[in-house]
Amino acid sequence: MISDKAIGRLSLYRRLLRESAGNGEEYIFSHELAALAGCTPAQVRRDVMAIGYSGSPAKGYDVQGLISGIGAVLDPRKPVSVILMGVGNLGRAILSYFGGRTQQYTVLAAFDTDPEKANRVIHGCRCYPLEQLIDLVKAQEIREAIIAVPASEAQATANLLCEAGIRGIVNFAPLRLWVPKGVYVENVDMAMTLERVVYFSREGARAKVTG
Amino acid sequence: MISDKAIGRLSLYRRLLRESAGNGEEYIFSHELAALAGCTPAQVRRDVMAIGYSGSPAKGYDVQGLISGIGAVLDPRKPVSVILMGVGNLGRAILSYFGGRTQQYTVLAAFDTDPEKANRVIHGCRCYPLEQLIDLVKAQEIREAIIAVPASEAQATANLLCEAGIRGIVNFAPLRLWVPKGVYVENVDMAMTLERVVYFSREGARAKVTG
Q: At A102, is the pLDDT very low, low, confident or very high (cuts 50, 70, 90)?
């Protein structure tokens, strides 16, 4: 089992490697990747070793090879379908973002309490009323969901998802969700991100990138 | 100077404290706040001590007092105006999210290369053509910007922002930006977040919340 933080770094390395590949680079040294990722070369080498990949001392890592190596660990065996809860502005942005962007992840269905949205197709994704959630999740064996409902509805939404069998949640609502053990939640809080950026740009100004 | 990670935790504590306050709680012990935040009580006590706040051993921290104490460190002295680059779906979602949500942060102006968007008001925010960026940033003394343009335009957008004097950037485009020293960038990458959630919900299933 690779640690939480190592997975985050591998995901970042892959993003950076794809950029390097896009710039026509075929090989990259651990110190170069480390500089891009904002960590140490030793850290990069440990993370890459942990996934069983290795480079050549003379040329560094093969960029495409390492992208595939990380994918073999990070990516599910087959494309993943997820569902979206809430088709307000943020929900639409998420649909637009994931629609066609990657073959790996598809938003298969979206749910909203607003009956006007039911059965509409938004950015290529069909919307359903909440009543159909449990049946659809079970029939399609969905494991992950994105929550983009208002804060006041988020916990009830999470309860329903967990009841339906969802095991992983990306939560955009600005509050902490209570979920049963075994369900993995990651929060994206845009207000907290802006808070940090304002703080550091004023108090601690220094060039810095976080994943 | 409080560390990067401590600032992130303080911002999370405040979010959790606001929820507690919303539930009518007046006091909270460090071990309770630690359980909510997913860290140790000792960590909470160190972070709170670092901002010069203290609780009572018998009752814990005063919830409202600690919210104010964190605000005194995190929040700028006066409300902050930021600008938004890119008024596509994601940009609109950001405008909708920040519009009226908080008095602390306002998206004062949005910029888009699409001339059709210039001078429109979207979610209460006026859109301008790019040519007006530098003048507006200087006149209004704007320091922070949110980038919500496509990846292919993100670096050129960042260059323009830095030239205009922007010192802090929240970057939603899925690539790393090169910025001059002294400019603080934080990336929000929704694809990477979903990647981690899928990985952990399948491989390492355990209840876990990250800030």
A: low
